Amino acid sequence: MCGRYAITLPPEAVRSYFAYSDTPNFPPRFNIAPTQPIPVLVADRASGGMARRFRLMRWGFLPGFVKDPKQFPLLINARAEAIANKASFRPALMCRRCIVIADGFYEWRKEGGERSSVKRPYLIRPISREPMGFAGLYETWSDPTGGEIDTACIVTTRANDLVGLLHDRMPAILDPERFSAWLDVEAVEAAKAVALLKPAPEDALELIEVGPAVNHYVNDEPSVQAPVAAPIRSLMRETLV
Q1: Domains and their CATH numbers in the chain
Q2: pLDDT at position 238
Q3: Per-residue pLDDT for 237 more than 80?
Q4: Does the annotation count 107 as an active-site position?
Q5: Nearest CA to 41 among 150, 187, 142?
Q6: Is 95 part of the annotated catalytic residue set?
């Protein structure tokens, strides 16, 4: 599950990491929530190659067969193990793969048992402080009047042991060497693309407990990422008491 994330690094650093030529005016976002515009990377073959292009899409995937979005569940995530067999995602897996641009995501740890309402939020980010590319799928949905909206979702995989301290799912974070393969829907068939989706190495990430301000999506400023404890890089569950 990934229900909230961030992209806060300078545009130049993000552009260099993902190797696109666009120069968008996308401000830092510290608390991105579903239904909001999100930055994604897509492949553009119009020029005869496979240039990478920056685009904004709504976070909340709408399959082409949907008639009324109000009567359809909000699809912000897609399980990597199921996308090849789900009618909602199969066409996009074959033809419309994207990379969601991020540099951190949030997860909450329940305390006091399954019925407890107490949750402690954590920021999960690369130790290197580099950006991250989440595997994504997108669809351009058309309404009955001909209006169009680009929509996207984040593909998730099982959590690695570190993130597993908080939740059993995490975004499928692509190694930069696999960006081109995930985006290339013509040369890389669906089954091979799915094989790229694996949990990130534990030693690449850190968990940072943050304050409750991140619980409310209206709070979108640097303070939501202020740590309230030292980063966790150990797999010892005792570190989360």
Answers
A1: 5-240 (3.90.1680.10)
A2: 47
A3: no
A4: yes
A5: 150
A6: no
156 φ/ψ sector (left φ>0, alpha ψ -120 to 50, else beta): beta
Amino acid letter, 178: R
Strands (E), the chain: 5-7, 29-32, 37-44, 51-59, 77-79, 97-102, 104-111, 118-126, 132-142, 148-158, 169-171, 173-174, 205-209
Residues 6+ apart with CB under 8 A from 88: 61, 63, 75, 78
Using CA atoms, how far apart are residues 169 and 11, in angstroms rounded to an integer? 28
Phi and psi at 173, nearest 5°, equal: -90, 120
Distance CA 240, CA 207 (A): 10
* 77-125 tens-digit pLDDT: 999 999 999 999 999 999 999 999 999 999 999 876 666 667 899 999 9
Catalytic residue among 98, 107, 153, 206: 107
Comparing 108-117, 147-156, 223-232, which segment has the lowest mean pLDDT? 108-117
Rounded average pLDDT over 203-223 = 96
* Single-letter residue type at 233: R
Catalytic one of 2, 139, 153, 206: 2
Give yes or no for a contact between 141 and 62, defined as CB atoms under 8 angstroms apart.
Answer: yes
> Can you tell me the mean pLDDT for 136-150?
89
